[in-house]
Design a protein that fits this description.
Helices cover 27% and strands 30% of the residues. It is built from 3 helices and 7 strands, in the order αβββββββαα. It starts with 25 loop residues before the first helix and ends with a helix. By secondary structure, the protein is an alpha+beta fold. A hairpin with a 2-residue loop joins β4 and β5. The structure holds zinc ion (ZN). Zinc ion binds next to α2. Zinc ion (ZN) binds next to α2.
């Protein structure tokens, strides 16, 4: 497994709409293993393939927060098939926008259809942090970032900060 470099704002690849995976090949399995390694190393609770520069619809998540009891979850071609009326606010961050956080309101519970590494279709119902995380990561697959859910003022401010840092060739 290899730790891959993270794609950081304002890299235009973060705005790409990722392609469906189709067949789960050995190349895809290697990518997933690398994504998990990269996510745990960061550390983060979720990662979309485009965040390591691969525009494919793959998400890895582990909300366990306990290094000794890792519970990696892999979502290939995930889609939200149902979301609750009830909403929750969570202070979100993103490995592609380091050290920046903002409160985002999303449905509290979602039902997600996806395929596992075995290629078989399955569904789960998620709530709490997992629900927030899945929605954040599926947004990535559609070229959407959590800052797009913030006010224009906040979004412009953070985008400018990262654009300036990128010009200077350093992290924001
Ligand atoms: Zn993110």
């Amino acid at each position: 497994m290899t730790i891959r470099p993270l794609v950081i704002l304002p890299d235009p690849r973060l705005r790409l709409v990722s392609e469906p995976v189709g067949e789960v090949t050995s190349e895809i399995r290697t990518l997933v293993a690398d994504m998990l390694e990269t996510m745990y190393d960061a550390p983060g609770v979720g990662l979309a393939a485009i965040q390591v520069g691969v525009p494919k619809r793959i998400v890895t998540i582990d909300t366990s927060k306990d290094e000794d009891a890792r519970r990696p979850q892999i979502f290939i071609d995930p889609e939200v098939v149902w979301s609750s009326e009830e909403r929750r606010i969570y202070d979100e961050g993103c490995l592609s926008i380091p050290d920046y956080y903002g409160e985002v309101e999303r449905p509290d519970r979602v039902r997600v259809r996806f395929r596992g590494l075995d290629g078989n279709s399955q569904e789960i119902e998620a709530d709490g942090l997992l629900a927030t995380c899945i929605q954040h990561e599926i947004d990535h697959l559609n070229g959407t970032l959590f800052i797009d859910h913030l006010s224009k003022l906040k979004r412009d401010r953070v985008t400018k900060k990262f654009a300036k840092a990128a010009k200077r060739g350093e992290a924001a």
